[in-house]
Design a protein that fits this description.
single chain; 133 residues; mainly alpha; extended
Length: 133
């Protein structure tokens, strides 16, 4: 009977750990989405780059949550430590001409829509995704 009691405790602790890791997953996912949205929408380049680094840290947290500590550390060292710092230094060391007014780039919108349509077309043309009975 003592074994049954310990088995229940182990089962309860396993369910508690699964709930905790699920909650951590959702918190990290919300953090990554918020940081990525901030990186894409903030008008100040330095703030966008720093929120980009926060998104990289969130991705590393996913790796730690999955038990891939080495990949998480590589993510932190390479992307947060090197790429994000390089982006910040590039922003700080280059000068932006303040005399030219910012205009909306319609050419970029057209190219983005074309690339998106090409990717969607390639995904739906993939034989592995064909749905048949």
């Amino acid at each position: 009977f003592a074994v049954d009691r310990h088995a229940e405790e182990i089962c309860d602790s396993h369910l508690s750990f699964r709930r905790m890791s699920t909650a951590a997953f959702y918190v990290i996912a919300i953090l990554i989405l918020a940081a990525a949205l901030a990186a894409a929408s903030l008008p100040t380049l330095i703030h966008a780059a720093l929120s980009f680094a926060v998104a990289f840290v969130g991705i590393a947290a996913f790796f730690f949550l999955l038990g891939a500590e080495f990949v998480g550390l590589v993510q932190v060292f390479v992307y947060v430590g090197a790429v994000a710092v390089l982006i910040v230094f590039t922003i700080l060391l280059t000068r932006r001409d303040a005399a030219t007014p910012d205009k909306f780039n319609w050419g970029g919108v057209v190219i983005a829509i074309a690339v998106f349509n090409g990717l969607v077309w390639a995904i739906f043309r993939t034989p592995a995704l064909s749905i048949g009975a």
